């Protein structure tokens, strides 16, 4: 099973340059790929360029970027530009994101999200293969000047419609905050959808919060990150199914973040993540692999572990 690293800005009091620190640690320790997350703080392509110029080896995947906010040409142009500047392959991850982000932050409609995801994935896959000299968009008259970005196309998925999109168009499907049991269920759905599409199933990855020998601050940071998912449709269903229905119901009533944090039991961090001593974490990773996961993308806790150094060092081999 592959192990990669997520460098995404947390929307809390963490330093804004934390993703760069995480990526530099991952590069120094020999990890092969860094995911550069998109969020309200950082434009993912700018951050990916900064990371690429500050590191030596890691391949980059930008996203998941919300398809209701960025059009396919903008996405592929950004990836190709990053690849041209840093001189390494750059992949793209697409996602439907959430109403909270698409409508609340960007002021764009998230209507027909599954349809937009499908059309975007098909278009991005085609555009990522276009060579210099070909028209950027047929009939536009503008020719492509940069080489293809060279990385894989990933689709973030939970629901059946998004899984079908990943099965038909993606090289890899990515999950977030899931238990091994949920991985097994989603692996089966992905394989079935790929069979219907007449394709080899894409690789299956998951972003998982991680903390080896966690401090109390590390545990709290992971639990606080889960609070943000309690009111997001799809994620909330997953967390309820994982046994945290009480906290999900509180989120639906509009409870504040402090109340929701108090409602999440400490075991929530270990149910959908990699938290504990090295033996416990390794055992947990084996459980995810046995459930059908091909890749774990570590989201290292950084409170009490700047840059995720302790966790990433422990898991580097």
Automatic annotation (TrEMBL):
Highest taxon of the lineage: Bacteria
UniProt entry keywords in alphabetical sequence: Oxidoreductase
One Pfam family matching this protein: Bac_luciferase
Domain Luciferase-like: 11-294
Keyword hit for Oxidoreductase: yes
InterPro entries xrefs: F420-G6PD/mer, F420_Rv3093c, Luciferase-like_dom, Luciferase-like_sf
Database matches in PANTHER family: 5,10-METHYLENETETRAHYDROMETHANOPTERIN REDUCTASE (PTHR43244:SF1), PTHR43244
Protein name: LLM class F420-dependent oxidoreductase
